[in-house]
Structures are given as C-alpha cells and as structure tokens.
Design goal:
103 residues; mainly alpha; globular
C-alpha cells in the first residue's frame, strides 16, 4: 500500500465525514480531495482497486461541463448536483471502507 494513497484516503475521509454540511455540499466542496485520492490510486499495485477508482471517477464526472458567463462548472459538480442521495451514499461507503482498510 502506498503511503501517498493512505494519506489521501485519510484526508478524504476527514473532509467528508467530519464536516457539518450535507453529503452533497461536502462532495462538491471537496472535489480536489476526490481527485487527489483518485490520482493517488494510480500508485498502488492492486489493479482491482485501481479499476474501482476509475469506475467511481468516471461515474462522478459523467455530466458535461458547462461554461456560462465566464463561470466554469465542473463535470464533477454537475454530476453530484444531479445525483440521488442513495448514489452519494454508495460513494461514501466506499471511502469509509477504504479508510478502514488503509488504517
């Protein structure tokens, strides 16, 4: 297990689960931490886990980005904004499982 991956998963867990915001707001606010965890998954040897991260990142960025009046809205934010709470729960559980696995 990569120490870098471990560090990024712990940070992502902390920002998601120690926040007082709703799940949707927390996901949107912490897009950079999701991206860092996704990129750090490239440093681990477990191919199944890398594939799972690729699938998750793809799911979280499936909506087209928009550019309105100079404001760039990312695909991540657009997708999260349209997701049901049940879907967000699935990703939260994955992060929680990874957190306990890297401890």
């Amino acid at each position: 297990m990569s120490a870098y991956y471990r560090e990024k998963i712990i940070k992502l867990h902390d920002v998601l689960f120690l926040s007082g915001l709703s799940a949707r707001e927390t996901f949107i606010k912490n897009e950079q931490h999701f991206y860092a965890a996704y990129m750090s998954s490239k440093t681990i040897e477990n191919q199944d886990l890398q594939n799972k991260w690729n699938e998750i990142w793809s799911d979280l960025n499936r909506t087209e980005a928009i550019l309105t009046r100079g404001l760039d809205v990312s695909t991540f934010v657009k997708t999260i904004g349209r997701m049901r709470n049940r879907s967000l729960e699935k990703y939260s559980l994955f992060i929680l499982e990874e957190f306990y696995r890297v401890l």
